[in-house]
Write a structure and sequence with these properties.
The protein is an all-alpha fold. It contains 16 helices and no strands.
């Protein structure tokens, strides 16, 4: 358990509701857009908007937070405005309207998590390896939402998706009001210009890994639900498969605070990339084998769980002092933003032709390339 002065349950509560909203958005947003009559290409484009704003928004908000402090004030404002903006989705279903709503909503929504990650790590201080014990509650929120909504969609059509999403956004704002600001005493006094950090080969290699691994998730996050439904799986079972992946992620989070000091960040990241490659190949080539799909979902522990926990800790070690917020923002914008947007766009363009198998094969190739980049240039922070 983290230090007794850490506001464990309030931090955990924010993660719970934030990832509950992802439990609506990631598995079922494509299904909702398909229900509204959009093509695979349009679904890919609209999903990419959600992610593309992460390229810019977290860096803008990170710069403000690092210069003015008060990270939780930014999180509260972003959560409130994000919920208001998303509510406009209920007024029209035209492509341009939805695109505009998603752009405004995601600009604010994408601001909150990187600053909250920095807040959590500052609260933890020298116990940063306990991050996964708090973050796992986000996975719990995702599981409950994805499984529950999957069962609801057996009885109701996809029109309920935006309403459930709006409820989760309101909950995020409410819980953000309870989380205290973190003390700056946990920040390192050492401080380098951020450009000097970004020029280091191991930092360039790390950020390359982040963008490539998120590109590889593009087909999964955008089309996995649609893909399985096309192969005859029920929405309830699809929701349970999504949930299984996150259960595996939780198990990893429970052990990461032991494994990271023991095995090192570099080894954990490299193993995560190899197992990610295996996962995408299984999903692409064996969608009709429930047993293999179950195994592939367990590998979510590697493709997201262990990679993310190691990456957050890596950023915390390399981006110190006033660069802490900008480091988390860079991880979010380059990986989840640029990488996620490229992955969603490409999967939307490739989904019909050359098809799902080829699309997931390209995802596997992407993580394999990332593995060799990491093998050559990635270093553990303590090795410097």
């Amino acid at each position: 358990m983290p230090h007794k002065n850490t506001p464990y349950w309030r931090l955990s509560g924010f993660y719970f509701f934030y990832f509950a909203s992802l439990g609506v958005l990631v598995p079922y947003w494509g299904l909702y857009l398909q229900w509204e009559g959009f093509s695979a290409q349009e679904i890919g484009e609209l999903t990419a908007i959600l992610l593309a704003t992460r390229i810019v928004a977290p860096n803008i908000w990170g710069w403000i937070a690092d210069h003015r402090g008060q990270r939780m004030s930014i999180v509260r404002l972003a959560s409130f405005v994000g919920a208001i903006a998303f509510s406009a989705i209920l007024f029209s279903n035209s492509y341009l309207w939805i695109a505009g709503v998603l752009f405004v909503f995601s600009f604010f929504w994408n601001a909150s998590l990187p600053q909250f990650e920095a807040t959590t790590l500052q609260h933890l201080g020298e116990h940063s390896h306990h991050y996964s014990k708090i973050r796992l509650w986000g996975s719990v929120g995702f599981i409950i939402t994805v499984a529950g909504l999957g069962m609801l969609l057996e009885y109701y059509d996809a029109s309920i998706v935006p309403y459930i999403m709006l409820l989760s956004l309101i909950a995020i704002w409410i819980i953000s009001l309870t989380v205290p600001e973190s003390s700056s005493r946990h920040l390192s006094l050492e401080h380098q210009p951020i450009l000097a950090i970004l020029k280091r080969p191991e930092v360039i290699a790390f950020l390359s890994l982040c963008i490539l691994v998120q590109i590889s998730h593009g087909p999964y996050y955008t089309f996995y639900t649609i893909y399985l439904e096309q192969h005859g799986y029920s929405r309830s079972l699809i929701g349970q498969l999504w949930a299984l992946g996150v259960v595996a992620e939780i198990v990893i989070f429970l052990f990461m605070h032991h494994w990271l000091p023991r095995f090192g960040l570099r080894l954990v990241l490299l193993i995560s990339l190899i197992l990610s490659t295996v996962r995408w190949l299984i999903i692409g080539f064996y969608p009709d084998s429930l047993g293999l799909l179950l195994f592939a979902q367990l590998l979510h522990a590697a493709s997201f769980g262990s990679f993310h926990a190691a990456a957050i800790t890596w950023i915390h070690h390399y981006f110190t002092g006033k660069n802490q917020g900008r480091g988390q923002a860079l991880y979010s914008s380059i990986g989840f933003g640029a990488g996620g947007a490229i992955g969603s766009l490409c999967s939307g363009y490739f989904w019909v032709s050359p098809g799902p198998t080829a699309t997931f094969s390209m995802a596997a190739l992407t993580t394999l390339i990332a593995f060799f980049i990491g093998l050559r240039w990635l270093k553990d922070p303590h090795s410097n």
